[in-house]
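Working notes for the structural subgroup meeting. M.R. asked for a predicted model of this chain before we commit to crystallization trials. I am recording the input and output together here so anyone reviewing the notebook later can reproduce the run.

Input as submitted:
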Amino acid sequence: MVTGMGFCLPGSSRPVFSADDLWDVASRGASCLMHDDVYYGAVGLSAAMFDARLPDIPPTFSRHYTNAHRFGLISLVEACADAELNFRAGDLTGAAVLAGRGGVDANVGPYLAVLEADPLTTSPQEAMDLFVQGQQGLTPSDVSLVQGALLRSTGPCFTVSCGCASSAVQVGTAQRMIAEGVVDLAVVTGVDLFAMDVILNVQRLLHSVQGAYEAVRVAGMPELMPSFDRLMRPYDRRADCVNHGEGAATLILESRKHADERGAPAYGQVLAHALTRDGLVNPLASDDSGAALVQAIRQCLGDRWSISQIPYIHGGSDGDVVVTAFEAAAVRQLYGADSSLVMTSQEACFGHNGAPAGCIGVALSLLMMDRGQVCPTANCEEPAEGLPFDPVAGTSSKPLDFDHVLTCNYQIGGVKSVILLGSPDAV
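Returned structure, recorded in token form:
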């Protein structure tokens, strides 16, 4: 059962922290992307916002936190409050602490600081600071490390890294651990940064080689690379780029027994998870036939559920036409040519932020099921021709009654992650 959700995501005037904040943005198809040379989703978490929620962390550790640490801790604190769990009183001591991390941007600073330090000129205090900074921030296990300490966790605590599918895979891990009785409570967080300085430099590099590419380009050849200075538009006929962002999302998962014993209401259930890969030799490619996504969906449904029970799928489109192509191909294979499926993506609300996408997809899908409304695809105004599903273009939600939903996430290189969700009473 999913009993809590919390966030630290880009917002319009302040960060998105709660389920209501998330719904306010997504239900209107609003985009929180800011334009400063490129479009980017920046959280804008101030020191005061962090200190108001976590005033009691020893500065020995907190002064060395990266933004990945801060975002992950804030989303965790918000999720605990939403689930009415008091981490300071030890309510999550036995919980599994599972993190998903796709990028390494936040790890570069601590790595270089340690690498470039001169032992001959570094004072003992500076050396100690570098040691703490490095131990907390050098590896992808950075966020789970500080989250486990905050919760005083004695349960399993580890990180999975498989790009944009990372936290989705950890949701599946939590579901299995709870079903097998390993734990009765799990915290799942996805955190990533796509640092603005890196995005800007990629933009400059692309501009520097565009002229050479144009000189040899012939009819039918695509652009060298899509630009970050245009808005991402999933499922739109003008879709030609991806905008990045940063942030974190956390879910609290419990066994039904554990939730019932403490009287906790649930947003819904995680019923099943499946993971496949396209099997391609190219580590950066995806098979546009949709075969791996079809396989993952069928594995996820198994013999217990039918595709006819799924009127809505939360898609993973980030504005890349290749993603739209394999999603459309999969829908045709699963539903036929005359599908009435509704399929939307809210990636353009906050920017493509990598690992958090899985938890965000679960959270939004559960909120949509609960409220009987499908959020529109942000920035989709003119749907691409031939889509075998309704992307809910515009800025208004669409009424829909459903108690099962699939949510999909994809890693570059072809990994397909699919989660089956149900309403609290679904079977």
